[in-house]
Amino acid sequence: MPRRWILLTLLAASRVTWGEAFPKEDEDWRERRPDTPSWNQPNDVPRGKRFNKKREPVVETDDGLDVERNYDDPESSITEQPPPPPKRQPEPQKEEREVTSYEESGASKEATETEKPSSPGPTRSRLRFGILGGVSSVKSGDSSSQNARVEQALTQNFFLGGILEGRLGKYFGAEVEGFVGIAPDVEISDTQGTNAQVKSLQQTGVLAQLIGQIPLGIFIPRVGVGFGLLGLKHTLTVTSTQTSSSEKVSGLFLSGGLDIEVSPYVTLTGEYGHTLDGAASFSSSATGSTTPAASNSKGSFDRIRLGLYYNFSPRVVAGLLFHMRNLASALKPHSSTTPTGAESFSQFMFAGMVQF
After folding, report:
1. Phi-psi category of 341—alpha, beta or left, where left has phi over 0 and alpha has psi -120 to 50?
2. How far, in Å, CA of 344 to CA of 87, rounded?
3. How many angstroms separate the CA atoms of 30 and 37, rounded?
4. pLDDT digits (tens, 9 = 90+) for 47-86
């Protein structure tokens, strides 16, 4: 009995060993490899690998990657194929629409508002007209007369004026400036309140010149020749009698100056002018007098001008100016508040102009 079980065990072990050593062919082996004479040829594909009927490699997925295995060549490596490029989304087409007249007007208005003002320099023809005004400090060359004016508050003088300026191309221009004093009357009385006096001290002036200039970049030197007049008038009223005395100096003058165009908006200017051959006159008159007394002599005047102009727009220009005007004549000094033959006007003014 034990012998029989031993034989059955050996038989079962031999069958298992035989099956492992010589495995049975797959059912569809001959159908897929009809040219292979046997399953144990050296070029046989390892078992378990499937091929389609067209003998094309089957793409398998390893760990989520697409790989291609060529089972016809057992020594071939796995070639990874890059993922296909993403599909390009079509760009949305911009919808074309008609621009309304309202939008066109808004665009043109915005372009006009942002337009830079033209250069204030003389690179093109232009015409400026404006007004000027400010305050002036009148100072006499005679110390006693000046002290009397200070005590009677006659040294501060307000004035108004106008200016007309033209440029013809790059090299030529003209300028006319005039002003008149508007200082209020000052009432003076003695300690008893009698003998009341009303006094005023007013200044006047006008200058006109032709200008020639040469633009050199931002620097524009210029010279001018013209005619000018400066005057100072003193008025005294006592009860019903009014007495006035005035001094005037007039004549041809020559000027030289320089403009500096800092930017298309800002221009600095400086100028000095002096008479070539001036004449001075002094006159006085009183109420009821038919023949006023007058005297003539040689005289002179000069002007120093410094200014800053700013272009707010192509049509509006504003400026801050300082003028120092001096007049002199052969008139002898007087110990009163009347003109003394040597007067100085220190003027601070504002100018507003319209440009065409």
Report:
1. left
2. 89
3. 9
4. 544 444 455 554 544 444 444 454 455 554 444 555 666 6
Write the single-letter amino acid at 146.
Q
- For 280, residues 6+ apart whose C-beta sits below 8 A from its C-beta are 247, 248, 249, 296, 297, 298, 299, 327, 328, 329, 330, 331, 341
**What type of residue sits at position 133?**
G
Number of C-beta neighbours around residue 268 at 10 A: 14
Say whether pTM exceeds 0.85. no
**Inter-residue contact 250 to 270 (CB < 8 Å):** no
Q: Pairing mode, if any, of strands 59-62 and 65-68?
A: antiparallel
DSSP 198-259: EEEEEEEEEEEEEEEE--BTTEEEEEEEEEEEEEEEEEEEETTEEEEEEEEEEEEEEEEEEE
Residue 2 tokens, joined: 């034990």
Rounded to whole angstroms, the Cα distance separating 228 from 230 reads 7
Per the document, the length of the chain is: 356
Tokens of 11: 């038989």
**Which of 161, 273, 163 minimizes the C-alpha distance to 228?**
273
β-bridge pairing 156-168 and 186-188: unpaired
Share of the chain above pLDDT 70, in %: 64
Q: Report CA torsion sign: 200, 201, 203, 204.
A: positive
**Alpha carbon of residue 286 to chain centroid:** 58
Q: Taking 70 as the threshold, does the pLDDT of residue 43 lie above it?
A: no
CB 159 within 8 A of CB 134: yes
> Among positive and negative, which fits the CA dihedral 67, 72, 77, 81?
negative
Q: What whole-number distance in Å separates Cα of residue 221 and Cα of residue 212?
A: 9
- Report how far residue 176's alpha carbon sits from residue 224's, in angstroms, rounded to the nearest whole number: 12
Task: Tell me if 206 sits within 8 A of 227, measured CB to CB.
Answer: no
